[in-house]
Amino acid sequence: MIRAQFRKVKDAVENNLDKAATKTGLTLHRNEPLKQINNAKKSQIEKPAGDAVVIANAKPQAERVVLDDAELKCSEMASDIYKYLVNHEKKYVLHPEFMNGGEPTSKMRKILIDWLLQVHLRFHLLPETLHLAVFLLDHMLAKKLVKKTELQLLGVSCMFVASKFEEVFLPDVYDYEYITENSFNKKQILQMEQLILNTIQFDLSCPSSLIFARSISRLLSEDNAGKIDEQAFFVAYNMIPKSHIAMASMSISLKLCPVDGINNEQAENLMMQNMDCKRSELEHASVLLAQAALKMLKQEKLFACKQKYQSAKMAQVANLITTEAKQKLEKMSEIL
Fold this sequence. Notes:
By secondary structure, the chain is mainly alpha-helical. Among the domains are: 93-199, Cyclin-like (Cyclin A, domain 1), CATH 1.10.472; 209-334, Cyclin-like (Cyclin A, domain 1). The protein is 56% helix and 0% strand. It has 15 helices and no strands. Helix 4 (106-122) packs across helix 6, helix 5 (127-142) crosses helix 6 and helix 13 (279-298) packs across helix 15. The longest helix has 23 residues, at 2-24. The protein is elongated, with a radius of gyration of 36 Å. The N and C termini lie far apart (116 Å). It holds the Pfam family Cyclin_N. One of its GO terms (molecular function) is cyclin-dependent protein serine/threonine kinase regulator activity.
């Protein structure tokens, strides 16, 4: 019944359209059923020209890009990067007597850094975090803004700021509160964080000795057929964190632990050439670094650094400091 009524309406509409078309002179084309492509005599898809072969259901394959070591290590820009780092770190060099005049003494600083090293190991932080924390601590002490009663608060706050800048998964502020045995609360740590950032004007871009040591080891590895031994590599990190002192640390480590295929004099010339350093500056830095290493070895109470480098992760390089190595360090510290 409904279909019959629908047909009547459809026929009436078509008759009215035909009458209107005859009056206006238009021709209406009725919709014809669609033809299937498979029934067509001529193929709708043209074959590729030449001897190309078409594979059915072929999946596109991604080409693997092979990069050279020179591209990954940015060899073309290495010299410009070294020049920038050397020029950039000069504005962060502190006066040798930056500790004088303030309440905290150099002995207090040594004890604090030894404790910060234990905190660094406890939280499993990156080496860059420790270097940045020491950098922030020294610049705050140079400004004479901290009392000796707040020295531990300054140290843990510097580590907190450094972990925010360097780490991906950083400890919570309550972890730092707990590590101080609740001597300082969250509010005090956050207030000290604001004081640190405002004092340094949010400038955390100082290159550390770790960056220079890695650059130097890469230079020496590329210049020679054999790679630098891990023992000499890690001994270079077992020094005080000063950016321009990395060359002296590498030179001392190569003298204490010689590496086959690397001449110490040639290595020093290569470092001075790439780091824009004079021979007198390298010798002066080597003397200062040897003296600092001897002082560290004589202080038995500050054991955190020695304990760190006795671990298997650090290739147990602390065990390489024998009596013969100490005698070599004493000779290096006496050369002026």
